[in-house]
Amino acid sequence: VSPTYLYCLTAHAAPDPPLATVGLDGGAVRRLGDAWVSDVAERSVQATVERIRSHDAVVAVAFDTGSTPLPARFGQTFASDDECVAALSAKQAAMSAGLARVAGMVEMTVILRFALDKSTGTAYLTSLARREHAARDVNTRLGDCVRESAMRIKDDVVTLSHLVDRDRVAIYRERLDALDVRILGPGAPYSFGPPE
Amino acid sequence: LSDADEPLVLSDLISRVLDKGVVLSGDVVISIADIDLIKLELHLLLSGVESSTQSSSASALPRRPAEPDHQA
């Protein structure tokens, strides 16, 4: 029995994966309960850029069906379909709440590149404050266009993730027109899983 | 998006897919391809910072009309 690899969870009434959908290492993607899965050769999956792209591509196919999926984190394998189904059943309530949270929503991402000035202590603190202000300004401009938001800072890159109604994406973009930022999306809501 | 943004986009993709998303099982069994992926992300990040520094030190700020130069 080949291990089962998990891509995402979908609403009960969501469409099945299209027949031609392939995942990691060319494995055919299929529906298992409310999950999209494929077979893989081993339990341990080596993270490569190609496999990461494959994982995300399958999630994108699920997203493009029009029913927002809950993306799974990369690398989740199960010894068999039965083990995957058992894991899903054990967390059914949380996953249902997560799917309800993202129903009809998309994730939009704003990337701010902000070179911090480390020449002096004062300059560094000033640039930190400017970075925070720039991030806050994005959220202020978006206002009620955004249902939920999350922020990640890694070195000089600030990533703002927003949960947005599918039909408000155009408004979202309009509100950021005046800013020199990179906008990604709409896409599946990796950053907004089941409520804690 | 321009070609110059590709490193940022790929870096964001790697971060999202590896760090975000729901976890069903207690153990997420992955191994990084040697250290190639980490090296790649570091390279992309450095490339992004470099291009950002070249283009602007504060590209996140709102675009504003050109202001007169107050310096003598």
Structure description:
- The complex is a heterodimer of chains A (196) and B (72).
- With 196 residues, chain A is α+β, with helices and mostly antiparallel strands.
- Chain A is built from 5 helices and 10 strands, in the order ββββαββααβαββαβ.
- Chain A has helices spanning 49-64, 81-90, 92-102, 121-142, 169-175; strands at residues 4-9, 30-32, 35-39, 45-47, 70-71, 77-78, 105-113, 148-154, 157-165, 182-187.
- In chain A, the strands form 2 sheets. In chain A, strands 1, 2, 3, 5 and 6 form a 5-stranded antiparallel beta sheet that branches. In chain A, strands 8-9-7-10 form a 4-stranded antiparallel beta sheet.
- The longest helix of chain A is centred in the C-terminal third of the chain and has 22 residues, at 121-142.
- Chain A starts with a strand and ends in a 9-residue tail after the last strand.
- The model of chain A has no long low-confidence stretch (mean pLDDT 93).
- With 72 residues, chain B is mainly alpha-helical.
- Chain B has helices at 6-19, 36-55; one strand at 30-32.
- The longest helix of chain B has 20 residues, at 36-55.
- Chain B is elongated, with a radius of gyration of 18 Å.
- The termini of chain B are far apart.
- Chains A and B meet through strand 1, strand 4, helix 1, strand 5 and strand 6 of A and helix 1, strand 1 and helix 2 of B.
- Strand 4 (45-47) of chain A pairs parallel with strand 1 of chain B, so a sheet runs across the interface.
